Structure of AAA family ATPase:
Amino acid sequence: MDFEHSNGEHPSVVLADICRRPEIKAQIIVFANEKGGVGKSTLAFHTSIALARSGSKVLAIDLDRRQQSFSRALENREATSRSLGIDLPSPQPIVLEHQTGAMLAQEIARVGAGATHIVIDVAGHDSPIARRAIAMADKLITPVNPTFIDLDSVAHFNAATMRFARLGRFAETVAELRAERCERGLPGTDWMLVKNRVRWAEKLQLKRFDSALDQLPAHLGVRLLSGLTERVAYRELFMFGLTHADCGDLPGMTNMTVRNSDEIIKFVGELDLKTPASPTANAVPRKQRMPAPSMKRYRQTLQRHVGSAIKSRETV
Ligand SMILES: Nc1ncnc2c1ncn2[C@@H]1O[C@H](COP(=O)(O)OP(=O)(O)O)[C@@H](O)[C@H]1O
Ligand SMILES: [Mg+2]
């Protein structure tokens, strides 16, 4: 693959830094794209919860210091867990005081004994720490919204012919880091692109977008995943720190399910992680249960926010 070296820290420096740190046994799953608002944090959160629910020991690292969406979703989850009086399976968050390779390695070593997976949510811009996370990834997931402006960080296309023209800046960085990994005899990175926020109503645009996307495996050595649709549930459950998989376990909501559950289960399955996430592990009720009136209030709030995304199994 031909590419000019993109600006920023040289891949050999990044890899040299990683290689001199202690070996990490856990599988490293990284969500990255230099484009913001494409769903990195949303998908990092869903993946980490699916893994925790399957019994894996998961570390969660939020490298987006400005947005902190991943950490906040985990804080919301803790608050939900407290107010409902149940233990919701959760990853262990790691907070980095300084965003350096040394601090990343130190905290993983300090907190991560016995961890099976490390889920890292990278901020939407290039930085030394973003490069380290990408270079460390066993699994690299790049969500893209299905528009050409969102795909720009990954690839450029000829507008007339719709043929692939060249790599975008983010894809260049990934290509260089993967090549450097290869050079050092490290295992290859499984890089995946996933369409997110797909609206089926935009059929014509989607067809055009898909025909562009289909060219990318040959040019980027990337896998294309099935994709996720635009759903209110992704936005609103995030506020409660919940995922579709939790809803059926919540006291007073055991007959509830969320409409996006099939696609998110499929997405996690397609990541082909070491321990396949099982959506069946249950939340563990704590001793004290929430009194009935506040449970009702909580359920009503959740239903109001998630709206049509939640359905009762009894009515389907
Ligand atoms: N599939 C989806 N359907 C609906 N809203 C989504 C979906 N994925 C992400 N969002 C929303 O899009 C916004 C950006 O997502 P986020 O995960 O924060 O992106 P990033 O981390 O890439 O900046 C958030 O408001 C999030 O709730
Ligand atoms: Mg984010």
